[in-house]
Structures are given as C-alpha cells and as structure tokens.
Amino acid sequence: MSLENDPDDPSLPLWLREMRRRERHRPIADPYDALLLEVVFATHRGNLDRLKVALEALTRSRGQVDISMYHDYPDAEGMAIMGETLLQTAVKRDHLDVATLLIALGADLEASVGYNDEMYTSLHGAVSHNNVVLVRLLLDSGADVHARWYNGSDDGTAIFLATCGRGKAAIDTLEILLDHGLDINDPYHQGRFGNRLMKNAVYAGGSGLELAIHLIRRGVALSQHHYACFCEVVSDRRSPEGLRFLVDEVGRREVEDYLMALLWLVREECYPCPAAPCEMRLEIIEFLISRLICDLGPGKALKDLPEIDTLLRKASSHGYTALAQLLREHEVGVTGSPPIASNHSN
Question: Quick one: signal sequence residues (predicted)?
C-alpha cells in the first residue's frame, strides 16, 4: 500500500479510511540505512542468529528501535520486499523462529500494509500460505482474527483467504479461524451468487474438492448457484467421489443438475483440463445417466427430456463417444412423441 493514499476518500468504506489514517503515521525505513538493511536481510533469509546480531548492533547505534517500520526494498541484495514490516517479511517466507522473536520484541501484529493499494496483516499472510503453525502463533499472541484485508478492489477477513487454498492445510487453517470466532455464514460473505467462501473453495479445486466438502459438512449455507457450481467443478475435476457426495450426502437430486453436469463435462472436453482415466470419465457419465433415469419418475424416459437432444449433439460434435453411445442406447435422438418437461424445478 502506498502510505500516501488519501485516507479520507469518501468513496471508501469507513473501516478502510480508519485503517489508512492509522497506517499513515507508520514510520518508513530509510532504504539506504546499512544497519536497517542488515536487519531486513537477516529477516528475509530467516537467519535467526544473524538477525539477533543485527538487532543488537542497531540498538547500540540508535537506542530504541521501532521494529514495525514500513520497509520497501524493490531490489536490494536479491530481495524483493515491497511494502512490508519485518514481521510480515518473516511470515510471508514462513520463518517461524524469526517471527517468534519479532513478536516477543513487540512487533505490531495489526500492521496492515502492502504493495501499491493492498492492506494485509501478518495473520492474512500466514492464512494465505495455510501455515497452520504461524496462524496459531499469531492468534495466540493476540492477532485480531476479525481484521480485514483490502487489495484495491476486494476485501474480507482471513477466512476468505483460507478458502483460496486446498488440501488438509487449508482445512486446518479454516478450523483454527472458526475456533477463534469467525463465522462461516457471516452475512458479509454473501455475494451475488451466494456464499463466496464456497465459491472460492470449489474454484480452488484440489483432489476430491476436500475443502468444498468440508465447508458443506461444517454447515456452510448453500444457494442454488453453489449446488450448480459444485456440480460443474466436480465434472471438470473428474471426481466420482465428489459427485457422489453431492448427490448422496448433500441430497442434490434434481434432473436439471445432472444434465448441467453432463453438459459441463462435454464442454470442458474441448479445453485444457485435468486429465483423468477413461474409466473414471465413464464412471461419472454412467452415474449421472443412472440418476437421471431414476429421478425422472414412472412413465417417463430419458429421451423425453427437452434438453437431452442438446446433450447428444454436443457429445457427438465434441467427440465424447461414450456419452453419445449411452444416450443412443436409451433412444435419445430418435424421433417420436413430443418432449415433456421434467418433474423437478430449480
């Protein structure tokens, strides 16, 4: 963040204006100060012993030292430090021992600075890296779990950043934040298409969509869009496990969703996407078709769905022969009685 940005810009929300007013008074380090540069270099490299020596030399020379100054070294001795405090530098590079020392020396946990118009605290940096140990250290040391970040166009709390990760580390980070008081269904997370945490998770992807599944099990509020979004990403990721979770555990059993997942599967076949064995793709296709047939109800056939001919055309034109063949086995594409609407609604 540029510390010279107008903190009284009326177009900005009040919390951001207050944050900018506070940060405007943060001391800015002299980039040509050799003693300070040595401290920054040791912090950047994670060299704890060198940092202790550098801090001692700086203290002897200057007396009291502010270790929460704003540092900006775009290209000094191979470092690229742009708008950081020492603690943020240590956290950004996962230097636990250095971060522990700086916190013990009184580093400002709520310093909210960054490059250009960004404003992130050290906690936000640790959460972004899904560094569970550093997240615990910062929260146990008194970091504000409700602190907001700003990137020039969007903002939120640390939980939003956690859902941009993937795998067990992201889940563990999410759990720590929830345990410290953040709300998975905070109204602030609601966007145009529902809960943005879920949208983050499903688009982050990852093996088995672990984080998205975990959010659902933790009770995240789902909108129609998120059910659809989850179905799309499951198809894109070629995850039979994730798809079965959606249907069997979450209870998504609507004909329109099965059709949408199949259409997405066919459409994505034309673009670069995660590779999957043919048998896995066939397993997904067969599962979706079987659910379609099951949920149509008595007296109705797959070929009667209005959208099914579109699916056949796309499958045929995109070379998705397994799906096209399966549809033809159910007489899709055969002229006959006019199509009927499904018995489910969005």
Answer: none
Distances in whole angstroms, Cα of residue 220 to Cα of each of 43, 92, 199: 39, 29, 11
Query: What are residue 76's phi and psi, to 5 degrees?
Result: -120, 115
- Are 117 and 150 contacting, i.e. CB atoms less than 8 angstroms apart? yes
Count of C-beta atoms within a 10 Å radius of residue 277: 9
Cα–Cα distance, 102 to 123 (Å, whole number): 14
CB-CB contact of 119 with 23 (8 Å): yes
Reply yes or no on whether the pLDDT at 172 is more than 80. yes
Alpha helical stretches, state H, 105-254:
122-128, 132-140, 158-162, 167-179, 196-204, 210-217, 224-237, 240-244
pTM (global) more than 0.90: no
| Band of pLDDT at residue 343, cut at 50, 70 and 90 | very low
Max Cα separation, the chain? 92
